[in-house]
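Q: Dihydrolipoyl dehydrogenase, please. Structure only.
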Amino acid sequence: TDQTYDYDVLVIGSGPGGYVAAIRAGQLGLKTACVESRETLGGTCLNVGCIPSKAMLHASEYFDAAANGTMAKMGVKVTPELDLDTMHAQRLDAVKQLTSGIAFLFKKNKVDWLKGRATFTGAHSVDIAGKTVTARDIVVATGSSVTPLPGVEVDNDKQIIVDSTGALELASVPEHMVVIGGGVIGLELGSVWRRLGAKVTCVEFLDEILPGFDGDVRKEARKIFKKQGIEFKLGTKVTKVTVKGNSASVTVEPGKGGAAETIAADCVLVSIGRRPNTAGLALDKAGLKTNERGQIDIDHEFRTAVDGVWAIGDVVPGPMLAHKAEDEGLAVAENIAGLTGIVNHDVIPLVVYTLPEISGVGLTEEAAAEKMKDKGGIKVGKFPMLANSRAKTNHEPEGFVKVIAEADSDRVLGVWAIASVAGTMIAEAAVAMEFGATSEDIAYTCHAHPTHAEAMKEAAMGVQGKPIHI
Ligand code: FAD
Ligand code: NAI
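A: Structure for Dihydrolipoyl dehydrogenase:
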């Protein structure tokens, strides 16, 4: 430990980026503290993001399976009764167990948990509730929060216009929920309340949902959600929401201009993206500026423009995902310790935890075709879940797996999947791509039968033009 500073490493924010950085720094023998302004550790992900949303998604899946006839089809007849209080209680229990788990891991790895909000006073010092704390290296991992929509005032307490945090906690099932934004949050939380009985209308500004995903996947996903009962208004923007008593009136108009209409709703979810948390950090005191998108720019090693200040997670450019933040947390701690911490940003899986799940890693077919346009082009193999024995047996016929490879070298450029367990299946594709695999490598790897994963093998065989089961 350098005696001039209180700590070797101070991490600001205890989300998946920050807490992982702090634990790894502790493991590497660095004197480490992590400051968090929330009451509990774990950031957005554990408190109001990944974990509680999955608790509601999982529980509502059971309800829906009982209510929509899926269970009856398999000979299990039940009439479900919703006990929303218990559903919320098990959500809170999951959050409590996991956030206190981080506190335990901090103790185990000798990481000091400093409670309060940190504000820079210099490149090596912060103020926390009137106290100055110094560190040789400071990691900014302050995460992100909901992007506000002008003219639409979120008030989670009233439970009429809510953001994702409010939408996790609704005390009763809305009759009609309008979701603004057909992105990940809108589809996941819209699905939760749709399954529990709400009518859900999703208003999306672009002409397709899930921007950034593979074109085929976006179209197929929308068809599936539509069949499940979600109504989509694409190419449409919300211009205003007014609240009267317990109901809201949502004004929408075509994105390209045209006649406005209003939709009545008793709940409106604002999910148009998230923005980095940098306000109130006094970054200027450390000599730092944000870029035009409000993010902190970093180099390949997660160094900011100021020596000794590093940044990771949602506050830096790149996808806003917990696993990306975690990997950056590991890497930044290793770099601070003088080791070599690397994250391959070309291989970050994406998963939407609806039913079926939607996942992808690497390039979309569109991006791959563009990239290889003058370099021999691409080959694509696609296998429908309908032809996968396990999916068929489980009454999960929807979706497909798609493997995209370079035509000449056969190297895999991207993999996309819609399947009940697509989130778990995509890990295989990420490992394959990390090792520079060809589609043939996947096709000739023995996959257990009967599993959904065989669809990955068959899609890869499809790239060779020789799948067996279609
Ligand atoms: P965060 O988790 O946002 O943590 C930052 C922490 O820093 C916060 O606790 C904040 O209080 C604290 N902080 C901020 N400023 C200060 C300060 N000045 N002083 C002290 N503390 C401060 N991602 C996935 O990969 N999978 C999912 O399934 C998933 N589901 C999601 C569901 C929802 C509803 C939401 C909202 C997000 C979801 N995400 C998911 C995204 C994921 O939560 C984020 O990508 C991830 O939490 C980012 O981690 P982070 O460490 O960068 O920041
Ligand atoms: P998003 O960026 O995924 O989707 C926002 C959507 O809103 C886009 O489709 C966009 O075109 C649309 N939009 C923007 N402005 C609009 C407007 N005025 N009117 C109508 N539509 C508009 O953002 P979202 O869903 O809020 O999620 C935020 C982040 O949280 C995501 O980027 C994701 O990284 C992370 N997240 C990840 C999850 C996962 O990995 N499973 C789950 C939930 C969130």
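A: Brief note, in case it's useful. The chain has a mean pLDDT of 97.
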